[in-house]
Amino acid sequence: MMAMRRFTGAAIRACSSSSSSGYFARHLHASSGESKKIVGVFYKANEYASKNPNFLGCVENSLGIRNWLESQGHQYIVTDDKEGPDCELEKHIPDLHVLISTPFHPAYVTAERIKKAKNLQLLLTAGIGSDHIDLQAAAAAGLTVAEVTGSNVVSVAEDELMRILILMRNFVPGYNQVVNGEWNVAGIAYRAYDLEGKTIGTVGAGRIGKLLLQRLKPFGCNLLYHDRLQMEPELEKEIGANYVENLNEMLPKCDVVVLNMPLTEKTRGMFNKEMIGKMKKGVLIVNNARGAIMDRQAVVEAMESGQIGGYSGDVWDPQPAPKDHPWRYMPNQAMTPHISGTTMDAQIRYAAGTKDMLEKYFKGEDFLAQNYIVKDGVIAPQYM
């Protein structure tokens, strides 16, 4: 952490020597009252955009902030076209001030794009997660990176609980039998189990991990968690979960492993063939964190061999997942598009949180401390 502080501090000092770029120029400019160019990158909802007034996180409804932004004289460009040198986003990179994106249709902000974005000051995630941004490049350039922390934690935790039950009860094949006009109870029952009495381990016990453990308590499971920080004893007792400091000790004990950690250079590809091999044969895995935490081919091979008995999640690498992505065709999978954190309730929360941060940005005020991913050239510890 200290090494990163020294690195970013050096970058800040180097950049501050120029009046046209760098941390101090960008930071001071952010508090001025002039018109800003804001670009939002969201998915298209097409015919679904008008079916629910709370469907805010799409291109068509643009977080519900267009009229508010334009009434204050700001320019608001929204697109879903974000890939390649000729995409719509690329056209606006040189002169935008703020870029808003979501984890569900992320705009990948590379060091190259940051270098081109001479006016860029603020990168906002409407939702949670900023691994689509090169955080070291953002810190060195003096950019502020923030998310709406907590906006969809309930949504994701509930979704994880659902996926555990779907895998444990072998639900998807049963559903497919009904759709296909079949009736074969044995074909489902032979790998369906009760959740009660099973050992569930979460790798990461932040906001989402804690909520999941709380929701699992009534099922009578043996609850384990691994995290860089141990919970307070009172909370640990209330939830009924036990801390395991060594991940290698926890994994072989688990019937179900749930991933709840951010994607960093340390966690990228962390669950490779060796790590998966440390788990129980037939383990169930739920991953709503980030697809790249798993080694793609290692998951495929473990599913085919039966080392992994079932895999469910809504995160892929890359996103959107191409049609030939091998996870689409694995046996015993219950995959979906990235939907867990974008319920209508979550969209209301992250749209409101984005508007609140924009208001503070226009006024030159600080955000809630928990929302910062990069501030003053320093990356938040959980992303280190």
TrEMBL record:
<dbReference type="InterPro" id="IPR006139">
    <property type="entry name" value="D-isomer_2_OHA_DH_cat_dom"/>
</dbReference>
<dbReference type="Pfam" id="PF00389">
    <property type="entry name" value="2-Hacid_dh"/>
</dbReference>
<comment type="function">
    <text>Catalyzes the NAD(+)-dependent oxidation of formate to carbon dioxide. Involved in the cell stress response.</text>
</comment>
<dbReference type="InterPro" id="IPR006140">
    <property type="entry name" value="D-isomer_DH_NAD-bd"/>
</dbReference>
<feature type="binding site">
    <location>
        <position position="227"/>
    </location>
    <ligand>
        <name>NAD(+)</name>
    </ligand>
</feature>
<dbReference type="GO" id="GO:0008863">
    <property type="term" value="F:formate dehydrogenase (NAD+) activity"/>
</dbReference>
<feature type="binding site">
    <location>
        <begin position="262"/>
        <end position="266"/>
    </location>
    <ligand>
        <name>NAD(+)</name>
    </ligand>
</feature>
<dbReference type="GO" id="GO:0042183">
    <property type="term" value="P:formate catabolic process"/>
</dbReference>
<dbReference type="GO" id="GO:0016616">
    <property type="term" value="F:oxidoreductase activity, acting on the CH-OH group of donors, NAD or NADP as acceptor"/>
</dbReference>
<dbReference type="GO" id="GO:0009507">
    <property type="term" value="C:chloroplast"/>
</dbReference>
<comment type="subunit">
    <text>Homodimer.</text>
</comment>
<dbReference type="InterPro" id="IPR029752">
    <property type="entry name" value="D-isomer_DH_CS1"/>
</dbReference>
<protein>
    <recommendedName>
        <fullName>Formate dehydrogenase, mitochondrial</fullName>
        <ecNumber>1.17.1.9</ecNumber>
    </recommendedName>
</protein>
<feature type="domain" description="D-isomer specific 2-hydroxyacid dehydrogenase NAD-binding">
    <location>
        <begin position="162"/>
        <end position="340"/>
    </location>
</feature>
<feature type="binding site">
    <location>
        <begin position="338"/>
        <end position="341"/>
    </location>
    <ligand>
        <name>NAD(+)</name>
    </ligand>
</feature>
<dbReference type="InterPro" id="IPR029753">
    <property type="entry name" value="D-isomer_DH_CS"/>
</dbReference>
<dbReference type="GO" id="GO:0005739">
    <property type="term" value="C:mitochondrion"/>
</dbReference>
<comment type="similarity">
    <text>Belongs to the D-isomer specific 2-hydroxyacid dehydrogenase family. FDH subfamily.</text>
</comment>
<feature type="binding site">
    <location>
        <position position="288"/>
    </location>
    <ligand>
        <name>NAD(+)</name>
    </ligand>
</feature>
<dbReference type="GO" id="GO:0051287">
    <property type="term" value="F:NAD binding"/>
</dbReference>
<feature type="binding site">
    <location>
        <position position="128"/>
    </location>
    <ligand>
        <name>substrate</name>
    </ligand>
</feature>
<feature type="domain" description="D-isomer specific 2-hydroxyacid dehydrogenase catalytic">
    <location>
        <begin position="69"/>
        <end position="366"/>
    </location>
</feature>
<keyword id="KW-0496">Mitochondrion</keyword>
<dbReference type="Pfam" id="PF02826">
    <property type="entry name" value="2-Hacid_dh_C"/>
</dbReference>
<feature type="binding site">
    <location>
        <position position="152"/>
    </location>
    <ligand>
        <name>substrate</name>
    </ligand>
</feature>
<dbReference type="InterPro" id="IPR036291">
    <property type="entry name" value="NAD(P)-bd_dom_sf"/>
</dbReference>
<dbReference type="InterPro" id="IPR033689">
    <property type="entry name" value="FDH_NAD-dep"/>
</dbReference>
<keyword id="KW-0560">Oxidoreductase</keyword>
<feature type="site" description="Important for catalytic activity">
    <location>
        <position position="338"/>
    </location>
</feature>
<feature type="binding site">
    <location>
        <position position="314"/>
    </location>
    <ligand>
        <name>NAD(+)</name>
    </ligand>
</feature>
<feature type="site" description="Important for catalytic activity">
    <location>
        <position position="290"/>
    </location>
</feature>
<keyword id="KW-0520">NAD</keyword>
<feature type="binding site">
    <location>
        <begin position="207"/>
        <end position="208"/>
    </location>
    <ligand>
        <name>NAD(+)</name>
    </ligand>
</feature>
